[in-house]
Structures are given as structure tokens and as C-alpha cells.
Amino acid sequence: MKLNEWIFVGIFMALAWVFPTIPIVLGKLLGPKRPNPSKQDTYECGVETVGPAWVQFRSQYYIFALVFVIFDVELVFLFPFALAFNRLGLFALFEVTIFIALLLVALFYTWRRGVLEWL
Questions:
Q1: 62 to each of 57, 71, 115, 118, how far by Cα in Å?
Q2: How far is Cα 108 from Cα 101, in angstroms, rounded to an integer?
Q3: pLDDT reported for residue 44
Q4: pLDDT at position 21 over 90
């Protein structure tokens, strides 16, 4: 493989960094800078906050959402297997069985840890 074949990849990666960086830097340099208290105030969806803006949330909500995303993404990996089930051999069935078993072990683990209990 010649070195000049990789020059296009290098140019593409350099441009992938340069094109998004230029507007950000230009916005910082040329943008207006007129801060005032109303611009610095915390708001949510355009509505002023009531009470302190820094409120502690239970980490369980975050973990619950993270477990949902993990299982959702892993479920996406099962769709190609379902579409090509007739063309795949016994080895693929064995691999998917292991994959589903790992999902069930993870589900049982999170259930036993109490992550799926909504308080």
C-alpha cells in the first residue's frame, strides 16, 4: 500500500477538525460580549427557576435510564439476526443464544441490585 493513498484520509480528518472549529472560534472572537444579570440567570425551557437551581437528584434515575439505553442498544443488535435467521447456520444461533443469556444475566443482576425499583 502506498503512502499517497493515505493522504486523502489525512486530509479528510484534518478538514473534519477544521470546518467545525472555524465557526466556533469566529463566534467567540467576533460575537457580541454584553453580559448582564438577566442573561446570566439560570432558566429551564425559557421559564425562570423557582428555588435554588442546584438540586440534588437521585442517581438511581440516571442508572435506570442508562440501563434502559444499554438494553435498547443491545436489542438493536438482534434485528439483523432476526432478518437473516434462515440464511445463518447453527453457529449463529449458538452465538445469539449466548448473547441473550448475557442480557438475561445483566437483567437479573440489575433487578437484584434494586435498580429497576422506581421510588
A1: 9, 14, 10, 12
A2: 10
A3: 65
A4: yes
